[in-house]
Design a protein that fits this description.
The complex is a heterodimer of chains A (240) and B (343).
Chain A: E1 3-14, E2 17-29, E3 34-38, H1 45-52, E4 60-65, E5 68-69, H2 75-85, E6 86-89, H3 101-111, H4 117-126, H5 142-154, E7 160-164, H6 172-189, E8 192-196, E9 208-213, E10 216-217, E11 221-222
Parallel strand pairs in A: 3-8, 3-9, 6-7, 7-8
Antiparallel strand pairs in A: 1-2, 1-4, 4-5, 9-10, 9-11
Helix pairs in contact in A: 3-4, 3-5, 4-5, 5-6
Chain B: H1 2-10, H2 12-48, E1 54-58, H3 77-82, E2 87-102, E3 105-113, E4 122-125, E5 136-139, E6 142-149, E7 154-155, E8 158-163, H4 165-172, E9 179-184, H5 191-198, E10 200-204, H6 205-208, H7 215-247, H8 249-257, H9 262-295, H10 305-327
Helix pairs in contact in B: 1-9, 2-7, 2-9, 2-10, 7-10, 9-10
C-alpha cells in the first residue's frame, strides 16, 4: 500500500507568531520501498514523521494510505489507523522497561486483537533474537533493543513503517545492521517505509532519499544519484 | 491489564510497599469498625432488644436531649399513655444500676424492670454472669432467685438483668418509672402528639439509643476516626498513583503512539489500582478478623459480615476513587513526545 503525503503544512505556536514546521511538504512511498528523509536539525524531519504517523494534524494537506485520506479522521479513528496500519520504530527503541522482548510484541498483538505468540517468536527470530525472548530491555544491548523495536513495529502487520533516527544511539557497525534489517524487512513485508535519519553513512540502503530544509521536501533522489562521498564505505559495498 | 500485570511484577517492591500501607489502613478501619460496633452493642443492645418499637421518656426541660438516666415518670403515666388514640398497649419500664451478688461473686449490672412473666422474687440473668438457674442472689438489697439464664444484652456497658416492675421499684428505691414501652396501632397518631398530650417524649428504639449516656459521643468519636482513616487512605493511594503515572509518562506516550486508545490506558491503569487495592484490603481485613476474634475475649468487639465487608468495600471504593483521580492523567499523555530524543 502506498503512503502519500501531499502539500503538508504544519504550524507550531511560538510566542505571538506561528512557526512553520512543514511548508508544502510532499512524499510518496510505494509498498516495498524504503525512503530515507534527511536534513539538518530543525528542518522538519520529525514533524514530517509526526504528521505521517497521525500524531499531529496538519494545518493543510493530506496523508493518504492506500489512497484513503486518514489525516482528517477523528482522534479515535486516527488511533485505530496507527494501531492497525502504521508501525513505529522509535529513536533508542523506546521499549517499555517492565516488558520482556516477547511481551513488547505481544502488547501490540493484544492491541490489534491478534495476540499470536507464534508470530511474535517468528519476528524475534527474524531479527536475530532467538533465545532472548524473555529478557527485559536493560538486559539487552543497544542494537538488540533496536531490533526488538523493529520486530514490535511489525507485530501489527502494518502497511506503513515509520522509523525515527534508528541509528542515533548505535555505533557504525550496529547502525548499519539495523538499517540493513529495515531494508530487508521492507522488501519482505512490502511496507512503505520512511526512515528519518541524520546519518548519511547508510543512505545507500535506501531506495530514495529526500532532503528537508526549512520544512520543505526536496525532489527524491534514487541511491545511484547520491554523491560518491555519501555512498557506503568499501567494507559495505552497495547493493547490485 | 496487559501492561498493568507486568508492571506489578516488575515494580513489585514499590507495589508491595503500597499494598502493605493499604493493608494496615484496612486493618485499622476494620478493627475500629468492630470496636465501634462492639461498644455500641455494649451500650444499647438492651434497648434494641426491647419488646416494643417505641418508648416514652420524660420530656427534658428546655432544649436538652432526653436521657434514660434523667427520665422519671409518675406511675400513672402508663395508664394515661395507654388511653391515647393510636396506642394499643403501654407497659412500665424501669432502668437502674445496681450490684448483683451470688455467693462470693459480685458484679455491677443494669436492672430492667420490664418482665411481667417473672414473679416478685425472681430475676433473669445473662450467661456471662455465670449464675445457674435456681441460684439465690442479692440484687440491690433484695434476695431473688434466678428463674432463667439467657438474653445476653447490656446497657451502658453493664450486663442487663430483668425483674418484674414491682421488684424493680424496690431495687431502685424509686416510686417513679424510667419510661413507658409503647405498642402503637398499625395506623398510629403522630408520636409527637402522643408525647405532647402526656408530657412525655415518644422515641423509636433507634432514636432512643442517643438517650443512653455517652453513646452518641462514643460512636461519633470512633466514626470520625474511621472517616479520617478512609480519607487518608484515598490520599495515600491517590498520591502513589500520581507519582507512578508521572514516572510512566514516557512509556505511556510510546503506547499511545503505537495506537492505544485513552480508554485502553485508563482501563489498564485502573485495573492495576484495583488489583493492588483488592490484595491490600483483603489481607488487612483477614488480619483484622483474626485479631478481632482474639480481642473480643477481652473487649467488646463484633466480628461479622457488616463489620468486615462494609469497611472492606469502603476501602476499595475510596481507594479506587483516589486512584481514578490520579490516573486520569494517562488520558492526557501526548504521543508526540515518543518521537525524538525526549525520553
Amino acid at each position: 500500500m502506498t503512503l502519500r503525503l501531499e502539500s503538508l503544512r504544519l504550524l507550531y505556536p511560538d510566542g505571538d507568531r506561528d512557526l512553520v514546521a512543514l511548508d508544502d511538504a510532499a512524499l510518496t512511498v510505494e509498498a516495498g520501498e524504503l525512503v530515507a528523509v534527511t536534513g539538518p536539525s530543525g528542518s522538519g524531519k520529525s514533524s514530517l514523521l509526526a504528521v505521517a504517523g497521525l500524531l499531529v494534524t496538519p494545518a493543510s494537506g493530506t496523508v493518504r494510505i492506500a489512497g484513503q485520506d486518514v489525516s482528517a479522521r477523528s482522534p479515535a479513528a486516527r488511533d485505530r489507523v496507527r494501531r492497525e496500519r502504521i508501525g513505529f520504530v522509535f529513536q533508542q527503541s523506546n521499549l517499555l522497561a517492565s516488558l520482556t522482548a516477547l511481551d513488547q510484541l505481544m502488547l501490540v498483538g493484544t492491541m490489534v486483537g491478534r495476540p499470536r505468540e507464534d508470530r511474535a517468536h517468528e519476528l524475534l527470530d527474524r531479527v536475530g533474537l532467538t533465545g532472548k525472548e524473555h529478557r527485559r530491555p536493560h538486559q539487552l544491548s543497544g542494537g538488540e533493543r533496536q531490533r526488538v523495536g523493529v520486530a514490535r513495529a511489525l507485530m501489527g502487520d502494518p502497511a506503513v513503517l515509520l522509523v525515527d533516527e534508528p541509528t542515533s544511539a548505535l555505533d557504525r557497525e550496529r547502525g548499519r545492521q539495523v538499517m540493513t534489517l529495515l531494508r530487508e524487512i521492507t522488501k519482505e513485508s512490502a511496507t512503505a517505509t520512511v526512515v528519518v535519519t541524520h546519518d548519511v553513512e547508510h543512505l545507500d540502503l535506501a531506495d530514495k532519499t529526500v532532503t528537508m530544509r526549512d520544512g520543505r521536501t526536496s525532489k527524491p533522489l534514487a541511491d545511484h544519484d547520491l554523491l560518491p562521498a555519501r555512498k557506503a564505505p568499501a567494507d559495505h559495498p552497495p547493493r547490485p | 491489564m496487559f501492561i498493568a500485570l507486568r508492571d506489578l511484577r516488575f515494580a513489585r517492591g514499590r507495589f508491595a510497599l503500597l499494598g502493605a500501607v493499604i493493608s494496615l489502613m484496612t486493618l485499622m478501619v476494620v478493627l475500629l469498625t468492630g470496636l465501634t460496633s462492639g461498644l455500641g452493642a455494649a451500650s444499647v443492645s438492651a434497648i434494641s432488644a426491647l419488646p416494643t418499637e417505641h418508648v416514652a421518656l420524660a420530656a427534658p426541660p428546655g432544649q436538652t436531649d432526653p436521657q434514660f438516666a434523667l427520665s422519671a415518670l409518675p406511675v400513672d403515666t402508663v395508664d394515661r399513655l395507654g388511653a391515647q388514640p393510636g396506642v394499643r398497649a403501654a407497659r412500665p419500664l424501669g432502668i437502674s444500676t445496681s450490684r448483683l451478688t451470688a455467693g462470693d461473686k459480685t458484679a455491677p449490672v443494669s436492672v430492667f424492670g420490664t418482665d411481667s412473666s417473672l414473679l416478685p422474687d425472681q430475676v433473669r440473668v445473662p450467661d456471662s454472669l455465670g449464675v445457674a438457674p435456681g441460684t439465690e442472689v442479692e440484687l440491690g438489697g433484695q434476695r431473688l432467685t434466678v428463674a432463667a439464664v439467657g438474653d445476653e444484652t447490656s446497657f451502658s456497658h453493664l450486663p442487663v438483668v430483668h425483674t418484674a416492675i414491682g421488684t424493680w421499684h424496690k431495687i431502685a428505691r424509686s416510686e417513679s418509672l424510667t419510661g413507658v414501652l409503647l405498642e402503637l396501632t398499625a395506623d398510629p397518631a403522630d408520636p409527637a402528639d402522643i408525647g405532647a398530650a402526656t408530657g412525655t417524649l415518644v422515641l423509636t428504639r433507634e432514636d432512643a439509643y442517643d438517650a443512653v449516656g455517652g453513646y452518641a459521643a462514643e460512636q461519633g468519636s470512633l466514626t470520625m476516626i474511621r472517616v479520617l482513616l478512609l480519607i487518608v487512605s484515598a490520599l495515600v493511594v491517590g498520591a502513589f498513583f500520581t507519582v507512578w503515572t508521572m514516572q510512566r509518562g514516557p512509556d505511556l506516550a510510546v503506547v499511545r503512539a503505537m495506537g492505544a486508545s485513552r480508554g485502553y490506558l485508563l482501563r489498564d491503569a485502573l485495573g492495576q489500582a484495583a488489583v493492588v487495592l483488592a490484595l491490600g484490603t483483603v489481607t488487612g481485613a483477614a488480619a483484622a478478623t483474626g485479631l478481632g476474634l482474639l480481642a473480643r475475649q477481652a473487649v467488646p468487639f463484633v466480628v461479622d459480615g457488616g463489620t468486615v465487608l462494609i469497611p472492606l468495600t469502603l476501602m476499595i471504593t475510596v481507594g479506587i476513587s483516589g486512584a481514578a483521580i490520579a490516573v486520569r492523567r494517562v488520558t492526557t499523555v501526548d504521543p508526540l513526545t515518543a518521537l525524538g530524543a525526549s525520553r
